[in-house]
Amino acid sequence: MTGAEPARDAPATADPHRLLGLAIAVAREAGEMLAGQHGRPAVVGTKSSPTDVVTEMDQAAERLIRSRILAERPDDAILGEEGGQIGGEAPVRWIVDPLDGTVNYLYGLPDWAVSIAAEAGGRVVAGVVCVPPRDALFGAAVGAGAWRSSLAGLTRAASGAYRPDPYEWGEAHPPGSQPLSCTADVPLSHALIATGFGYERARRLVQGQVLSALLPRVRDIRRNGACSVDLCSVAAGNVDGYYERGVQYWDVAAGTLIAREAGAVVGGLAGRPAGPAMTISAGPALFTELHDLLLGLDAERDS
């Protein structure tokens, strides 16, 4: 549902619309910092393989995000890709990928993003994915629909630091934003499907086999290189579906809420939740077709 008046009696500590406002402000600031970097950033570490890199800007963006959230909400917990979890039991936990699509960022490609989600009571209730090279901010609060806004538009709407208050919008979305809706009634044979690949050699060999079996059965494949952006692309109808093995919670937390609020199904194989083993997203009918094909291909195997 979009355009609804937010519930004003929600507990202040975990009000999804207040959390969304903070996530917007922080993601936007981190995105501006990352976009302002000149030259190729230094690689300071690796993760799953020598080509799965961490840059100085991944770490700088996460430090900024943590500091801004804790300045506003010092009792909250934060789970970040680079720094792990800080804080224990808390009314709200923030799930942060400070730079999703690091290799794209390293090479000057446009599909990288800042992803911030707020979790209350064990479920994500607000999420933002900021994609500065595409002048795009995607967001959602649980039960209020998903939207896309221009970063330039948000900047024009504010003087100085933008601290959005959804209660001042008069509706669930920022002024000038566009509501999102995933594609519907697209058969697998006509579907544009996004995917991604891991960095480990054995997993890539299997992913190549799965892809070669899938490709003749769909319209085409897109590989953009940032999971959060792929999920937002499903939400916006820019692709019909998405699947990937190996994504982590910080990759999908915000994007999953955005996709679901746009009408998409997000899940794993055989009734399991989306997660590292497999994440699939599409409109309901296409989800079933894509799921069944991937299940038959044993797409969760690594050898």
Q: What's the gist of this structure?
A:
This protein is α+β, with helices and mostly antiparallel strands and 303 residues long. It has nine helices and 15 strands.
Structure description:
Helix content is 34%, strand content 23%. It is α+β, with helices and mostly antiparallel strands. The strands form three sheets. It has an eight-stranded mixed sheet, sandwiched between helices. The protein has a five-stranded mixed sheet with strand order 12-11-13-15-14, with helices on both faces. Strands 1-2 form a two-stranded antiparallel ribbon. A hairpin with a 4-residue loop joins strand 7 (123-131) and strand 8. Helix 1 packs antiparallel against helix 2 and helix 7 (227-236) packs parallel to helix 8 (249-261). It is globular and about 50 Å long.
Topology, element by element:
Layout: H1 16-35, E1 43-46, E2 53-55, H2 56-72, E3 77-80, E4 84-86, E5 92-100, H3 102-107, E6 113-120, E7 123-131, E8 136-141, E9 146-149, H4 151-156, H5 166-169, E10 178-179, E11 192-195, H6 201-214, E12 220-222, H7 227-236, E13 241-244, H8 249-261, E14 265-267, E15 279-282, H9 284-296
Parallel strand pairs: 3-5, 11-12, 11-13
Antiparallel strand pairs: 1-2, 3-4, 5-6, 6-7, 7-8, 8-9, 9-10, 13-15, 14-15
